[in-house]
Structure formats: C-alpha cells, structure tokens
Amino acid sequence: MSTEVTSNSSSAISDLSKLIESENPFDRSLTVRSHDVWERKFPDVPSINKHISDAVFHGIEQIRKGQRSVLGITIKAERGLGKSHLISRIRNHLKEEGGCFFVYMSETDYGDLNKINSQFLNTLSLSLKHEGSQGVTQWQELATALINQAYNSNLSPQDLIGRFPGSVAKKPKLVDELTARICKSNPHITDPYVVQAIFWTLAEDKEIFAINWLAGKELSPVQADVMGLPISKDDDRESRALGTASQILDLIGDYRSIVICFDEVEPKSSNAKGLTTPQVVALLAKDLYSKIKRGVLMMAIFPQTWASQVRVMPQADSVVDRIGEKAFDLNYLNSDDVVSLVSSWLQDFYQQKGLTPPTSTYPFDEAELRELGKEKPIVRKILGWCRDNWKIPEKVEELSTTINIEAENSSEDIEKVTHSGSESNPLRQVEVAFNEQLLALDSNINDYLEDSELIANALWLGFASLTGETLEEFQVEEIEEIEAKAADKGYINFKIIGKENKKIVKIGVSVLQESGAKYVSAALKRLIDYKKFGLTRGCLVRSKAVKAHTLGGQYLNTLLSDLNGEWVSLKSKDILPLLAILAVCDSQEEYEVTDEEIFEFMQERKIAESNYLIREILSDPSGQIPDSVVDEDQLIITDTTDSAENLADADELLTVLSA
C-alpha cells in the first residue's frame, strides 16, 4: 500500500526539517519494561502478531459465554521480537473493554523462589492496585461488584469511594456488616477477612494498609485493629499465601474473568530443591489453573527455555496440558510489518507536533524499510535503525549509498547499522534507560518503599560503585554478604568494610520497612549483635517510627545510645535514583548495556557519590532518631467527623445499603 500523502496536505519541508534536526522520536529506550505493560507507552500495531492477541480475546469471549472456564497459553519468542508490546496490547484492550481483570508477573517479581506463593500474592495485590476499566483500581471495582451483588444495587465505584468515609463515620460497624452479608450470600467464602480488607480499599486513608494486608504483609497492631483484621505472622506467610491468593481469585471469578500473565521467565536462579525459575513458575501456573473460576493463564518464554527447562520436568505432561494448552510462536517482522511499525511511531510523533509529513514513513524511504523487512528483523532492531538514521532525507540518502542495504544483506548487516549511531557515545543508552526508569519509578515510588530487599539491593549497587573511593572520610574497600544461620538470615542485608581514620570499620546495614513489631524487634536484635555478625557499627535504614515501648524500641535505644549506631531516614527522593540504576542493571541484556558502562555512568553522574542515603550511612553516626520518620498508626487513625455535605452523601449510601 502506498504511503504517499497529497502534497497540498503536508507541512512545509522547512518546518519538518527543523523538527527532524531538533528531536528524534526513536531516541529513547526501546525496551518494554514491566511498568510499560500497564500503559500505552509505545505505539501499537495491531496487525503484528495479531494471531496471538486474537486467540487471547477469543478465549476470553468463550469464557464469557460459558463455553470454557480456563485457557492456558504459552507464547514462545526470542528476545526483542515484541512479546511485551503484545502483552501491553492485551492489557490495554482489557482495560478499554472491561469485564476482565489483569495480573502481570515479571522477572523482578519472582524474587526468592522458595517463597513463590508469597511472591505471587504480592504481585496479585499490586496488579489489582492498577486502574481497571472504570477509572478506579481493580480492587475498588471488585469491592463495588461485591456490594452491588449483595444489595441488588447499581452503585458506581465513584459513588462508593466518595461516600464511604462518611458512611463509616456515621456507622463504624459498616464494613463488618457488609462482610457478614457478603459471606452469608456466598457460602464458598472461607476467609471473611479477605472480603473485609477488600472493602477497606474504598477508604482512601486505609487503602494502602488494606492492600498490604491482602499482600500478606504484617501490619502494626493499631493498623490491624482499626480495620478489624488479624495480624498475620511472618513465619507462616508462605503457607498462607496460596490460600489467600486462591480466595481472592475465587471472589474475582464470581464477577469477572481474569488474565494472569507470567513474563520474562528465564532460568536465572533456583530454589532449595534445585528447580529453576521457569520450572517454579510453570508449577505455580499449573496450580493456579485449577484455582481460577474463569480466566486465561499466559506464559511468555524463550523457545529454548521451554524445551530445556519445562518440557524435561517430571510433571511436564500435566504442566503442558494446562499452561501449554495453546502454544504460539511470535513472528519475525516482514516488509509490511516494518512499514506499519515505523508509520505508527511517526504518526504519533507528527500529530503531537501538529505537522503533516509528505509520506507516512518520512523522513525514511519506504522502499528502504521494505528491504530491511525482507531480512525478518526483530522490532528492537528496526526501531534502533530508525533512531540511528533519523535525518533529513538528503542525509538519509547519503547514508544509504554508503551502507548500500540490499535484499541479500544478512541480519548481521542490519545489526551493524543499528549500532552504528550509538558507538560514538556508549553511555548514551545507559542514560536513556536510566531516565526512563527514573520517570517510571517516580510515578509509583510508594509501591517500592515497602520492599526492604529491593531497597537494600539498590544501596548495595551504590556502595559497590564506590569501591576504592573515599566518601565522608570513609574509604570503601568491600561490600560483603552477612554470614548467618537460617534463623538469622535476611535481617541484616550486608556489611560495608572500609577504613575511617586509619581504623578498620565494618558497618552492618539493615533496611527495615516492615510494620510488624515482632519482625522489627527481631531485626534490631540482630543489628546490635556486633560480635556475632562481625560488625563495628550498625545502621538502620527506615522511614517509619519504632514504638518506644516495644522490644524493638529497647534494641534501637541500645543501638543509638550505647553502640555508636545510626538511623538513616529513608525518603523516596533519595532512593529513587538508586532504584532506577538498579533496574537498568537488572535488565542490561534488554537495554544492551554492560556492567562497565553502568558503573562509568554512575561515576560520571555521581549517582552514588552525591546520594544522601549513601553519605549518611558512611558518615559519623549522630545517635539521634531522625525527625522525618513517620508514625504509620497516625496515618490510619483519622478524625471520624466529616462535613455536612459528605454526611448527607453518606446517608444516601446507607439508605441503599439498608434496603
């Protein structure tokens, strides 16, 4: 199909040339990360791998009509073929159409494979925190569906969210009554506390605590008591996790279908039984297949990983029968796909700038793009080629004659062209990736502030980049893991070994964002045991207050007053750049950057050197409790009075719920 546009409808070439020389729409990270899946960050070309998205949508339609209950789909694809683009298309289609929830689990979510049930429950809870089709979170959509069914009403989520606080203020036992009514009409509910927590997601001041509880995290006694929820013990979290997840999925199945997608399933680690990530995730998916009432299970995996990791398992037949019920291969691009892909990106770009190009592929030559398509390239290579050849047409022609791309060129030639423009500045790709992650994390940083292990990993990377450097009169020599028995593991994240005033110093760092008093006390008890863990100083990194009357409070006093320890207040703005560069490091294959380039970029930008957290951990301890720490309990104990208008709205809601 011709891409020509009538000449009288196109913008002036001079205006287009100025834009082309000043801005490159392809000069961005071309890797789709997990946060990109949730929103439309990249232009979509529905015709590319349409057979797979159509199969998912057809399966959902069959489930809606009652023709089947569950469908398992495996997507096999090499890196860079566009599987995350495809998953994003599916997610956003479901968001627009409604009637189906979406859950997404990727490489960064698998974590400790020995606790895969807990990891899945956490991912399920965070996924449902994303916006659904009704402009509110999927949790709030579920809470609304529960209430509407129980009371035969037709309230919108916005109705409930706006009136809920006032209604609870006028009727403090409202959530208990709602829970009792739901459980009475749904005898299959085995854990009423799950229902109760779901209702609390409708209250702005309690939503985050309710979701934390649903994710299996321990709340403080005050937080749990305000919502009438039991305190879950950390030592039985894994055993309870799958049961809680099953109850949530069971409730969803009464009102919605669900699509659960496992992405980036690569054999990068293993559990205590020797099972690799793909094997552990495949077994989890197999178990979930029998626990969801209505839905689609998807797994995206490399073909060689599917063959060498999943198909060789002792339970391979039962696994494949479920998650591999339908298996699809992603296609390489053809000439039409290449033209459509580039045209789609350019259409968005020119529309945003209010300009109209003479052709849909301008400033590229369609014939040249079609030649590239004959080599069956991957999406990332084509977009990279566009980035490196983004010039006004005269310069494109000049470059084309030099490269002389013809149909018989090999795929290696295309790769050479793709990288030709970036070799002059090897740190440019790191910068693009870092800025992308910085922006993505900034929009939902609170989701990550509860993850102590992730924050510790970010700090570790920061200190590792400073090895051999002197900061705050502390010469960093080495970062070490803590050697500990099973009962002591995880409480102290690592130790920094170095010299200060010519003396050897060993700082134990404990990132402690958990809320439960028992866990906080256990961690601080280890942090003050300098002899056992080979420390000369302990450092607590935490944003939340520690109750003075608890054991944890006593241990903290010992740390600060008697042991020359330090408490560094964790703030989102300080950990953000370290989390961003950690995300780049974790995905360096996808971003096509090296460890050396990442560390060079960190040094050039002084990401660790200028970081407040890094400097405070290394500095001379103050022995003081930071002023900026937050008392979480005060966030959830709100004034029960409300405005007259809100109370009037509450009366309307209570009237409906009393019917």
Please render the helix and strand layout as text.
Blueprint: H1 13-22, H2 34-38, H3 50-64, E1 70-76, H4 83-97, E2 100-105, H5 107-110, H6 116-127, H7 138-151, H8 157-170, H9 174-185, H10 192-200, H11 207-214, H12 221-227, H13 237-255, E3 257-262, H14 277-289, E4 295-301, H15 303-310, H16 316-323, E5 326-329, H17 335-353, H18 366-373, H19 379-388, H20 393-403, H21 411-420, H22 428-443, H23 452-464, E6 470-471, E7 474-480, E8 494-500, E9 503-511, H24 517-527, H25 530-533, E10 537-542, H26 551-562, E11 566-569, H27 572-586, H28 588-591, H29 595-605, H30 612-618, H31 632-636, H32 644-658
Parallel strand pairs: 1-4, 1-5, 2-3, 3-4, 9-10, 10-11
Antiparallel strand pairs: 6-7, 7-8, 8-9
Helix pairs in contact: 3-4, 6-13, 8-32, 9-10, 10-11, 14-16, 17-18, 19-21, 22-27, 23-27, 24-26
Main CATH class of the domain at 443-636 = Alpha Beta
The general outline is globular
Strand content: 5-15%
Largest sheet: 6 strands, mixed
CATH topology of the domain at 443-636: Restriction Endonuclease
Using the CA coordinates, give the radius of gyration: 27 Å
Q: What structural class results from the helix and strand content?
A: alpha/beta
Percent of residues in helices: 40-55%
Average pLDDT reading:
87
Number of strands: 11
- The largest sheet has its strands arranged as 6-7-8-9-10-11
CATH architecture term of the domain at 443-636: 3-Layer(aba) Sandwich
Termini separation = 61 Å
- How many individual helices? 32
Structure characterization notes:
The protein is an alpha/beta fold. Among the domains are: 32-38 and 45-67 and 82-92, no CATH class; 134-259, no CATH class; 333-420, no CATH class; 443-636, Restriction Endonuclease (3-Layer(aba) Sandwich), CATH 3.40.91. It is built from 32 helices and eleven strands. The strands form two sheets. It has a six-stranded mixed β-sheet with strand order 6-7-8-9-10-11, sandwiched between helices. It is globular, with a radius of gyration of 27 Å. 44% of the residues are buried.
